[in-house]
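Build the 3D complex.
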Amino acid sequence: DSGVTQTPKHLITATGQRVTLRCSPRSGDLSVYWYQQSLDQGLQFLIQYYNGEERAKGNILERFSAQQFPDLHSELNLSSLELGDSALYFCASSRQGGYGYTFGSGTRLTVV
Amino acid sequence: AQKITQTQPGMFVQEKEAVTLDCTYDTSDQSYGLFWYKQPSSGEMIFLIYQGSYDEQNATEGRYSLNFQKARKSANLVISASQLGDSAMYFCAMRENYGQNFVFGPGTRLSVLP
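Done.
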């Protein structure tokens, strides 16, 4: 167990629907990062939060949004889902002064 | 432009032999970190090894070592005495400056043959 918890592990939903992925960072970590891993795009950075505030944005679609709550857990909201959104979504966390990431086990999203 | 290049989409190695996975990077920053992650078929991302740009010694972690050649901007992963459980995707990643997000390479799929 890496200490980063992602739920759910698997999610199957229909096109046009909306889902929420949840991430609890490792204890003491203030930064949360979201990544999307699809077969044809590799690991793509989506967004970073630091202590509740958005810190950096990557290739995140407008249909996607995220937030980090006061207890530091984060949620990634995906709406108007398309078949191409099917991917493994990772959350990672890091602590102040640290260089490394700790990844969660990912949420595998399948859009049908 | 690609910041991390892994030129070997797939590699095979015989069990108990050593293997080198290539990684080159592009950055104009002086301070950065280089990482290798392993992703087995189960999907989780497992941290293997870290090299800081100012570290003079090559990093080692058990059977993993990082061959860091700063002038060439390369950070190759060497796995000694390969085991069947080493079969996985391997990603090279870089973090520029402090607090910035990681950039990952496309990965190399390693298959260890018995």
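Residues 46 and 58 of chain A are 5 Å apart (CA to CA).
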